Amino acid sequence: MHVFITDALVIDLEKETWQCRGCETELGSARENYKSFLRVRPRNPQDIHAPIIDKDRYEFTFAPDPEWTRIVEYYCPHCARQMEVEYLPPGHPPAYDIELDIDALKAQWADRDALTEPAIGPAFVPPQHHHRKGGE
Amino acid sequence: MTLDLNESQRDANPEAGDEGVSEILRDTSLFLAPDPLIMNNHGMEERTALEHESLAAETDPARLEIVRERLLAGANESFDMLESMGAAPGAKWGDCVSAIFTASGDLSLASTGGVVIFCNLVQYPIKFINKYWTNEPTVGVREGDAFLVNDARYGQAHNTDQSMMMPVFWEGKLVAWVGATVHEGENGAIEPGGMPSMAEQVWDEGLKMSPFRVAENYTLRRDIVTFLQNSVREPKLQYADMKVKMFTCRRLEQRMHEAISEFGLEAVVACLRSNLEDTDVEVRKRLKEWPDGTVRHSWWTDGTLRENAMIKINLALTKKGDRLIFDYRGSSPEFTNRSNNSLDITLKGMLAQLFLTYIWPDLPRNQGVLAPIEFIFDERSILKPDFGTPNAQSMMSVFTSWSVAQVAVMKYLYSVPDKYTRVIAPWFNMINTFLFGGVTQHGEMVGNVCADINGMGGGALSDRDGQHSCAPIFATMADLGEQEFMEEEMPFVQLVSKKLMKDNQGFGRQRGGMGYQMILALRDSPVWGFMLTAIGSKFPNVPGLFGGYGCPTYPLCRISNVDVFETMQSDPSQFRYSIEELMNEQPFPEGEYSTHPMFMPYSLAERGELYMIAQGTGGGFGDPLERDPEEVMRDFQEDLVSEDVAWRIYRIVFDPETRIVDEAATRLARDEVRKERLDESMSFDEYCADFVTDAPPASLPYYGSWEDPAMVYAGSPDRYYPAGQVNPPVIMPNPLEVKIAKLERQLAEARQG
Question: What is the pTM of this model?
Answer without folding.
Answer: 0.95
